[in-house]
Structure formats: structure tokens, C-alpha cells
Amino acid sequence: MSDPDCIFCKIAAGQLPSNRIYEDDELLAFHDIHPAAPVHFLLIPRLHIPSLFDVDAGHGALLGKMLQLVPRLAREQGCEDGFRTVINTGRNGGQEVYHLHLHVMGGPRPWKKQAP
Ligand code: DGP
Description:
Blueprint: H1 7-12, E1 20-23, E2 27-31, E3 39-45, H2 60-76, E4 83-86, E5 102-106
Antiparallel strand pairs: 1-2, 2-3, 3-5, 4-5
């Protein structure tokens, strides 16, 4: 299920451009448009889940697949010395885009900006 007003659903559908680094039938990863680190990409499910608040037991396999994919993609993007993962959730969590996404940030420190 997708939301026609959601920018990440549009990116997943190819209706908006993105710099993709991975995709399969359930997940998509692409570079963040405002990188906060030398490597900064987002991993999203194609399924429109607005936030971590909306996750339930039926999403367990999908979330597990996302987490399993993170270290592989991080290594492929050059984060051999480690990386940071962030899921901003809700207004007080600083979430800006209401389609569940996992930030992966890494690369040589110090990073120029405060990470999201
Ligand atoms: P947040 O919801 O605060 O966890 O962060 C949303 C992130 O999404 C933010 O770092 C910028 C990024 N972003 C927003 N719009 C676009 C877009 O159209 N393309 C890409 N590649 N990234 C986007």
C-alpha cells in the first residue's frame, strides 16, 4: 500500500528521482538529499508505514530484513570503521518525512553537521 501524497512512496515508485544504492521488491535505499555525514543513506520499506509508532507484529519480518541489510549496505558504501543508525519518530523525535525510514551515517569523522 502506498500514499499518493508521500514523497518516499513517490521515490519508491520512481515518480521522483533519487540516488538509489539498493532496491528489491520490499525495500529501497537511497542517498539522503541533505547528508549529515560523508556517507548518509536512507533505507525504507516500499510499504507506506508512517512511522515507528505504526509498526506492529505483522511488520516483524520486514523490519528484520531492513536491519539485516544495513551492515551490508554500510560496508558497500565505505563505512568499514562503523556507522550510526537513526530512526526519528514523531514530532518530538524530529521526524520530517512520515514514511518509516532508517538513516545510516558513516565515513571519516569529524562530520560537518550534527546528525539528524
Ligand atoms: P527525518 O524525517 O527527520 O528522519 O529525515 C528525513 C530525511 O529525508 C532528511 O534527512 C532529508 C531526507 N529527504 C527529504 N526529502 C528527500 C528527497 O526528496 N530525496 C532524498 N533523497 N532525501 C530526502
